[in-house]
Amino acid sequence: MSNLKESLYQDRLVRLQQAMKQQGISGFIVTQNVDLYYMTGSMQNGNLFVPVDGEPIFYVRRSISRAVTESVYTVEPIGALKTLQQQLSSASSGSEEQPLVLATEFDVLPVAQFQRLQAMFPAAKWVDGSLIIRELRMIKSPHEIAAIKRAASVVERALASGLRHVRVGMPEFELMAHIEHQLRIQAHAGIMRMRAYNAELITGVVAAGSAAAVPTYFDGPAGGLGLSDASPQSASRRQIQQGEPILLDLGCMIDGYVIDQTRTAVIGTLPEDLQYAYDVAEAVLRATEAKLKPGTPCEELYLDALRQVEDAGLAEHFMGYGENRVKFLGHGIGLEIDELPVLAKGFKYPLESGMVIAIEPKFTFEGRGVVGIENTYLITDDGFEKLSISPEGVAYL
Amino acid sequence: MSNLKESLYQDRLVRLQQAMKQQGISGFIVTQNVDLYYMTGSMQNGNLFVPVDGEPIFYVRRSISRAVTESVYTVEPIGALKTLQQQLSSASSGSEEQPLVLATEFDVLPVAQFQRLQAMFPAAKWVDGSLIIRELRMIKSPHEIAAIKRAASVVERALASGLRHVRVGMPEFELMAHIEHQLRIQAHAGIMRMRAYNAELITGVVAAGSAAAVPTYFDGPAGGLGLSDASPQSASRRQIQQGEPILLDLGCMIDGYVIDQTRTAVIGTLPEDLQYAYDVAEAVLRATEAKLKPGTPCEELYLDALRQVEDAGLAEHFMGYGENRVKFLGHGIGLEIDELPVLAKGFKYPLESGMVIAIEPKFTFEGRGVVGIENTYLITDDGFEKLSISPEGVAYL
User: Fold this and answer.
1) Chain B, 309-368: which have a CB under 8 Å from a chain A CB?
2) Closest Cβ–Cβ partner in B42, B107, B130 for A229
3) Which pLDDT tens digit goes with each residue over B304-323?
4) Which helix (H) or strand (E) holds B151?
5) Which residue among A1, A272, A312, B172 has the highest number of C-beta atoms inside a 10 angstrom radius?
6) Angle at which helices B298-311 and B272-289 cross, to 10°
7) Pair A362, A204: CB distance under 8 Å
8) Closest to B133 in 3D by CA, of B170, B104, B94, B160
9) For residues B346, B343, B384 and B350, what is the CA-based torsion angle, rounded to 10 degrees?
10) Was domain B139-396 assigned CATH 3.90.230.10?
11) What is the pLDDT of residue A214?
12) Where is the Creatinase N-terminal domain (chains A, B) (predicted)?
């Protein structure tokens, strides 16, 4: 293993153990595939035990041989968890002031698997460690930022190809299929990972006109009719028409890291009021950029944007229409598409250098379509770097 | 809503409520997207409350308007769960012989969301309802079987196109990209859903030679090197060579339903011992087919196959190599790729008419590749119907 790789994971471990110490956590059992990859370099199936002091051990179900190659930590077969169990129970016995406090990811771990962990460590008090690990992952290393930049290049090339390909009468899903193929032959892994329960995202939302404005379960500003009630979002069979907004909310996953960006296109020109809304979306993005620097509270960006769209007379259309509006302006991205921070009311985090955030002002017009723009930004020591490289402005085809 | 649709969902409700009655469950709170779709016809975000008697109510977070259109049951905003809470607590108070027993899906619901439900219904005793709903979904209706048949046609066309497309020196992921594009332009929804924690599947495994034999975390017989340690399965950048087995384990999702099948191809011919292993895989499939009828215990199919491959001298290579072997011969499919029943030791279910099962004898040769075959079958009243329509035998290219 390279020294670079070792120091990368060492840094993550130190930060995790610091947070554990502060919160009185004796051990963290990491279970989720993405968290395991982040902490060990391996996404094999198992549990990583991180003690508050000392070296973690990766207990692997399968593949053990592959985990040995990939992981920076010692790998043991999953059966060896019994040894850990004995060690922990003897260490915690007799010290009533220091109970065994174990953490795991309550936000993703299913109840049944948690109950198995509880049964294995009956003396432990369990706490939710998901915020710790999500906050850890919120600040990206140069290595991670480089991967997100590679994804940004891939998505730009696929978008450009898609814009050349689109024709009046083309079903949305055919345009989506073309773009996805362009992503895939550039080594996109096929989906963008999401952390939230029941959330699915393939490569984003490609939808036009009325179909784009159909609301859906997905926690984002653009819904989409989808291919059926069993996949009720994004591209549908509806044919793209002249003069209606085509929303291209696209991403991909390169070497584990996602990018997220949105562009608006139209065959011909947009109706005047939709062009106006698009221009307001860009203005919101510019006003937001002006505040993108360490120290700005995340919620301020959302609340300021709300005021700006209210002044522009578009509040009812902002980030969805009516009851279906979502209440955020942007979200962190990285290994998953729904990372911290969230630009929303109540998120008091100040921006920090190393955060990577997708900011996506959009306006929905029922029966007519969705317009907007989205870029991914890196927060730097003195401001920001725009990671999305696609040309801005409505793409008139 | 059509009468047909109504009676379909009515039947599912009756069967769920019968199982609840047998197990003393007062109410079932369905939370998972696929289970919600199965029970209501809608995949919007929310909780379905199913009382042991009477009509369910679908409490929806978003999109309410879309759920109203899609769901066969009454839709209420998620806030109305408070009313349910009051009704249930008053109904259960004062009847100590009949405590409030609530079920939900412990196998998929994250701990944090379960704790919120527990806090909402503090008097309830909670039980795991996942097996009930998975057993319900195990028996397919004609409507579901028709969707799986459509998926079987889609995958055959994509496979045939892929076999025409493959060339010596083509990276595995380019072949995968081509096939996925063929799937997607036939309205494949982009992924195949899996129920298991941390499990991901895009469209299956396309891998050749040594890369196909690399083990991975995925609970299946074929692994694959993958594109990076962050997506460590299926197609990789490795170039396909002459004379090595190309594994095409493919599926897609059409109208919510998946198909799963595997074919083996080669440019030129296979080494003799791998051709022999392929022939044994087909022989295992034929022997299994002979027992595919209502009444046969699921585990018997697996145990018989084990004996057959032992007699053939291939036990060490069956369903993975060495420590990385998986311990099943097949699995139910439907809305998800990992449904019941499982053809594995300990699964005593007798086969029943209406089950749909993918059966996949495969052999792994470390450093050399994976050969095998997989078909999806419907169990009928007097035997089986093969739903996979792709030609069998090694495809010599």
Assistant:
1) 323-324, 335
2) B42
3) 999 999 999 999 999 999 88
4) helix B142-165
5) B172
6) 150
7) no
8) B104
9) 10
10) yes
11) 95
12) 12-139
Residues of chain A with CATH 3.40.350.10: 3-137
What's residue B93's pLDDT?
54
Closest to A279 in 3D by CA, of A314, A242, A321, A244: A314
What pLDDT, in 10s, does the model give residues B260-295?
999 999 999 999 999 999 999 999 999 999 999 999
**Residues within 8 A of A (CB atoms), B 237-296 only:** 237, 253, 255-257
| Cβ contact, residue pair B181, A184, below 8 Å | yes
Say how far apart CA A281 and CA A110 lie, in whole Å: 39
Work out the widest C-alpha separation in chain B, in whole angstroms.
77
Rounded to whole angstroms, the Cα distance separating A25 from B217 reads 29
**Residue B56 to residue B74: CA distance in whole angstroms:** 7
Query: From residue A129, how far is each of A32, A104, A108, A294, B176 by CA, in Å?
Result: 12, 5, 11, 25, 37
Residues 6-25 of A with CB under 8 A from B: none
User: Bridge-partner residues for B356, per DSSP?
Assistant: B378
The 3 state secondary structure assigned to A239-259 is: ECCCCCCEEEEEEEEECCEEE
Question: In the prediction, which pLDDT does A128 show?
Answer: 98
Q: SS3 of B103, please?
A: strand
The ipTM value here is 0.96
Nearest to B246 by CA among B211, B281, B218: B211
- Test A44 with B214 for CB contact under 8 angstroms: no
CATH topology for B3-137?
Creatine Amidinohydrolase; Chain A, domain 1 (3.40.350)
